[in-house]
């Protein structure tokens, strides 16, 4: 992924607000870079990689190393990853 010097916050903003996403989640696969809502009260999202899907639950390894489980409806797969 080409980040053009963006820090993690800048990348999160780009992926959340500007990148096209698979809204159907039909192409979601293990290993994909994803955005996941980690706090339903604030809407906070984090970047991570999808580790597995079990039913409606997605297990994600966040960039900071933490593991996180979320309902699949709170996981977004950006389709545009290159800022070039």
Distance between the termini: 10 Å
Which word captures the global form?
globular
Radius of gyration: 12 Å
> What percent strand?
35-45%
User: Would you tell me the overall average pLDDT?
Assistant: 90
Q: Major sheet: order of its strands?
A: 4-3-2-1-5
Low-confidence blocks of residues: none
Number of discrete helical segments: 1
| SSE arrangement, N to C | HEEEEE
Helix content bin: 10-25%
Supply the helix-strand structural class: mainly beta
**Main β sheet profile:** 5 strands, antiparallel
- The number of strands is 5
Tell me what the structure shows:
The chain has 84 residues and is mainly beta. It has 1 helix and 5 strands; from the N terminus they run H-E-E-E-E-E. It has one helix at 8-18; strands at residues 33-39, 44-54, 57-62, 67-71, 75-76. A 5-stranded antiparallel beta sheet has the order 4-3-2-1-5. A hairpin with a 4-residue loop joins strand 3 and strand 4 (67-71). The longest helix has 11 residues, at 8-18. It starts with 7 loop residues before the first helix and ends in an 8-residue tail after the last strand. The model has no long low-confidence stretch (mean pLDDT 90).
In brief, what are we looking at here?
The chain has 84 residues and is mainly β.
Keywords:
84 residues, mainly beta, 1 helix, 5 strands, 13% helix, globular
């Amino acid at each position: 992924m080409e980040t053009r010097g963006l820090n993690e916050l800048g990348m999160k903003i780009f992926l959340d607000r500007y990148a096209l996403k698979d809204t159907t989640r039909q192409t979601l696969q293990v290993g994909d870079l994803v955005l996941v809502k980690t706090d339903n009260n604030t809407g906070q999202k984090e970047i991570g990689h999808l580790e597995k899907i079990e039913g409606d639950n997605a297990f994600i390894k966040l960039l900071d190393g933490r593991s996180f489980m979320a309902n699949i409806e709170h996981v977004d797969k950006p389709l545009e990853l290159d800022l070039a």
